[in-house]
Every structure is written in C-alpha cells, then in structure tokens.
Input
Amino acid sequence: MRKQHVLLIFLLAFCTQLLNAQNDTAITTPTADSLLTMPDSVIKDTLPEVVPADTSKKRSPAGTAALLSAILPGAGQVYNKKYWKLPLVYGALAFPTYTFIDNLKWFQRTRFAFNVLSAKDTARYKDVYVRLQPLVERGDKSGLQNYRNEFRRNVDYSVLAFILIWGLNVVDATVDAHLRDFNITDDLSLQIKPGYMPVANTAGIGIVLNIGKNHVNRLSPAR
Output
C-alpha cells in the first residue's frame, strides 16, 4: 500500500514538472518582428519622399540684357524694348570707328613716307602720298616722324573710345533691365489737412501722403 502511494506521488510530480516545462516553452517562444513582416509597399509609404534640389539657375533679366549687349551692341536695348536707343548706340560707336579707320590710314601713309626718306630711296618718292611728297622732297624727317606718332596715338585713342562706348552700352542695358520691373505710378499726391493729436490733446495741421490707391501715409500734425 505504501509503495502504491509513493508511485502515485511520483507520477503526480512528473506530470506537474511536464506541465511547467510546456508553459515555459510557450512563454519563451520568440515573436516575429512586426517591422520585418510588413510589406515593402507599406514601408515605402511611411518613409519621407526625398525631393531632389533644383540646381538649375535662371539668369536674371539684367544679366540677359548685359550678355546680349556685350555680344552685340544694341541687342540688350532691343531686349528691354528700348528701340529708340539703337540709333544712339550705333551713332556713338560710328564716331570712334571712323576716326580709327582714318587715323590708321594716315599712320600707314606717314610711316611709309618716313621709311622712304630714312632709306633715301629716291626711286620710291613717287609712291609717297601726294600730300606728303613735299615733306619728303625737302627732307623733313622730324615732321614726318611727328605726324606718324600723332596718328598712332589717335589710333589708340579711337580703340579706347570704342571700348568705352561699348561698355556704356552694356551698362545702359543692364540698368534698364533693373528698372523695367520698377513701378512708377502717377497716383502720388501730397495733401495738407487739419489733424488732431490725442496724446497731446492739441489740434494742428497734418500732412497726408497718398501713394497709389491703397496706400496712405499720414505724417504727424504740426502744431
């Protein structure tokens, strides 16, 4: 009888131990990561969308006008729709162009005459320009040299004047492009009206400046 009780207790203890082992395995079973089991479409929707930065740079109207005028005189004025400035631009450029051509021609004539006289090449006296032949015939070497140097300086001055006027053409087009969007309204008025200062409790004369239809600036009244 005692052996049966011991066997029954042993069986109960074994069963209890077995149940505890099953409960432990059920608790310690790892759960799948919810993030790993999410569909790819859901993950993509939750991530912030990266918008690529706009690296393209738009040239301003002033820059465009300056570039056009630098390439071709008057092109910037046409871009700004200031067509009436075209005759002024080309008229200003025509003067140094004419002086450059004329002085360069005379420089070449005087240089040739000076070289002929210096070499005493009498056979080529007839090839000298007609208006310079008297200087060659009387041997005025210093006169020919002075004329040659003077015409050479005039050539250089003509080139500088041409470059300066071209630069002014670029500056003019740039300034016009900057002022193209500047709003100049005729609705501008200045009025003097009676005024009242609540702080000082005094009456006086107020100055009202109207800029446009919806802008009114009231200055402090003068006592």
In short: The helical segments are 2-27, 40-46, 61-71, 75-79, 86-119, 133-137, 141-179. Confidence is low (pLDDT under 50) at residues 26-36, 213-223. Residues 23 and 95 are 108 Å apart (CA to CA).
